[in-house]
Design goal:
With 246 residues, this protein is α/β, with parallel strands linked by helices. It is built from 8 helices and 15 strands.
Length: 246
């Protein structure tokens, strides 16, 4: 990654530079001592990541972060500060991490790993591009505080529970806040409805099982979960299974 270091203390910038060089695999493309300089350097150098102090002269780090996030292709931001009382404001500024001085190498390495992932602005831009292409290839979820993309091809089924949707996929399960009806309309070529609260991917349909009471359940490929089929959708699901089996 290309990194810009921002801190009003020369020794602090030198320490971060040494830690990054020791970790390896990254390029430091600029330094700044004030918030205003940080914005200018980011505009010129277009880094992937900014390590940004908060308390600085010439515009603090939070103000600089707001301006940096407004760039067409904003870098990820990790705040580095000696004060722990700005954490909430830092994450409201869409920082991917918040490091307290003195920064430990293993903690910095963890932050750099987080920053390699798509940041919020990049994810938004990706989704907008996918919307423009009229077909999303991923679902967006939040996992342990990080934004992640789930490939549609990996999704086995979608199940509604109150205001959340459980996404069962090859990597596990995650929650999203999309509408099940909207997902059904958007991905009608990939998923079919088996119940008012569940959509199943055609490619992961393994078959049907009939219970002693006559009710039906869907078997999912590579998954031990059995999903109930409602009476309303039973005939359509039986016909689909028959056609896919032909």
């Amino acid at each position: 990654m290309k990194i810009v270091i921002v801190d009003d203390e020369t020794l602090a910038r030198q320490r971060l530079r040494s830690l990054i060089e020791a970790i390896g695999g990254h390029e430091i493309v600029g330094e700044a001592a004030t918030g205003e300089e940080a914005v200018q350097v980011c505009t010129r150098r277009k880094p992937d990541l900014v390590l940004l102090d908060i308390r600085m002269p010439g515009g603090d780090g939070l103000q600089a972060a707001t301006r940096i996030n407004d760039m067409a292709e904003p870098p990820a931001i990790v705040f580095v500060t000696a004060f722990g009382d700005h954490a909430l404001a830092a994450f409201e500024a869409e920082a991917v991490d918040y490091l307290l001085k003195p920064v430990r190498q293993e903690r910095l390495q963890e932050a750099l790993h987080k920053a390699r992932r798509l940041n919020r602005a990049q994810l938004k831009a990706l989704q907008q591009q996918q919307d423009a292409d009229a077909s999303r290839q991923h679902l967006l979820c939040r996992r342990r505080g990080d934004l992640e993309l789930i490939p549609i091809d990996d999704v086995r089924f979608l199940q509604a529970d109150q205001k959340y949707i459980t996404v069962n996929h090859r990597g596990g399960e995650d929650l999203i806040e999309d509408s099940l009806r909207q997902l059904e309309e958007e991905f009608s070529d990939r998923f079919f409805r088996i119940h008012r609260n569940a959509l199943v991917a055609y490619r992961y349909l393994a078959g049907l099982e009939r219970n002693p009471d006559g009710s039906l359940q869907v078997r999912i490929r590579d998954c031990e979960v059995l999903l109930d089929v409602s009476r309303r959708h039973a005939a359509a699901v039986r016909e689909l299974v028959r056609r896919l089996g032909d």
